[in-house]
Amino acid sequence: MKILLVILFVIVWVGCSTDTVSNATPMITKTGDKEFNYAYTFLYYYYYLAEDELKSSDYYLTNPDTVIDKEEYADYADVYCMFREMSDLMTQYFPPDLFQKVNQAITTSPVNTKSFGMELDENLRVKYVYRFGPAATAEMKRGDQILAVDSTFFSTDSTDFTEQYQSVLQKKTTDDFDFTILRGKDTLKISMTREDVISPTVYVDSIDNIPIIRVTEFTPITNGFQNDGSAEEFEAALKETDGAKSTVLDLRGNPGGSTELCTRMAMDLLPAGDTAFIQLEWKPKGTERSIQASYFVNDKDGLGSGRYYVLLLDGNSASCAEIFATAITSNLKAPIVGETSFGKGIGQVYSKTPEKGYAVATSMLLFDKDSVSYHMFGLEPDFTIKNADSALTTAVKIAKERKEKRTAGYSERVNSYWLRVKRKAPESVEERLRDWTRGLAIQEVSVE
């Protein structure tokens, strides 16, 4: 069990002058351009290490040694340098030309290009049909067996149907296809046109009558939903599997997302009165910078409360996925199968800037219901199994027996990611974006 650890690094970066300057004062700058003023105010109120790291505004505005990655970012050099000076790995500034990419990462699940809006197993049997997309429009059904595409029948002698299928799709220069499928005893002809399709984030499957609900991220806009996508999908999955005594929750590879959504989804599984997690948050209170503690307590029995749950996690289960997992394990003692999770027990706020850039700052420290932090360490599995298929098999077996309770705690080893030096070398903004989206626990704010 770990109490909160915050490591402060003494960092030297060639891109910014390292002269000692006094810490920020309560007075927000009145000089500089609108983008800088907004970003400085944002950090002052929300960045949890601002008292120790944010210097006077003049330091960033007059610094002669600012070096940036691309010449076109020269107009934002002072803002760029200021955010680089903050030691926290997740506190970042993204200039306006990355607005669409950042907005996509924050608000929308991945878009599949040239997609039919369905997923197939290795035998070309339909596993999932998305709510919206060509397959849904054509009334494809789960369990349909694809026999042929454009009159090319797939050889029953082959052990790799997927390769044959992809070969047919890749050879064609247009997006219109005719499918021959087997549904039960009936052979049907169905036509579909590929298009760009937003992916779902929640998938329902089953093994030996044990429901398996896989959650890939916690995102507002998903296939068929425009506001609370992942939560709406998850609640639909709980209704679909209503009556099940046990369920496997697969969060492997889930990088996180919206704190509002993962909190709501965790509450869906808890009985009334359970505390999902505790949050310390830096934010303005009037004109003052303040620290506020919040306890997220369920006010009613959740839609899926009363079931026995088993969690699947791995090293890429991060941030909001860990908030969700911690709420379930600390309250329900649900066992974990797989690998140690990423270990991100901090959360961020983000804000659109006047020039349509994005400012992001770590402003939240997250704790389980017992006020214990897993930050930098992650959740240790009760059953350590690296092989994905073996882990799933074990999780299903445990769910069927419903006897195991969580006994493991948080890892004793710090994830090496948290020992990285943020400014060791100037990296591209694209690299920072990829790294940043690895573990999201975010909520939007606006600076007045």
Assign the CATH topology of the largest domain. Answer: 2-enoyl-CoA Hydratase, Chain A, domain 1
User: How many domains make up the coordinates?
Assistant: 2
Broad shape: globular
Distance between the termini: 39 Å
Radius of gyration: 24 Å
CATH homologous superfamily caption of the largest domain: 2-enoyl-CoA Hydratase, Chain A, domain 1
Per DSSP E runs of 2 or more residues, the count of β-strands stands at 21
The number of distinct helices, counting runs of at least 4 residues, comes to 12
Residues in β-strands, percent = 25-35%
Q: How does the major sheet shape up?
A: 7 strands, mixed
CATH class of the largest domain: Alpha Beta
Q: How confident overall, as mean pLDDT?
A: 88
**How much helix is in the residues?**
25-40%
Low-pLDDT residue spans: 1-30
CATH architecture of the largest domain: Alpha-Beta Complex
Structural classification: alpha/beta
Organism: Hallerella porci
Pfam family, one: Peptidase_S41
Protein name: C-terminal peptidase prc
Domain PDZ: 105-185
Task: Identify the notable features of this structure and list them briefly.
single chain, 448 residues, alpha/beta, 2-enoyl-CoA Hydratase, Chain A, domain 1, Pdz3 Domain, 2 domains, 7-stranded mixed beta sheet, 6-stranded mixed beta sheet, 12 helices, 25% helix, disordered N terminus, C-terminal peptidase prc, Tail-specific_protease
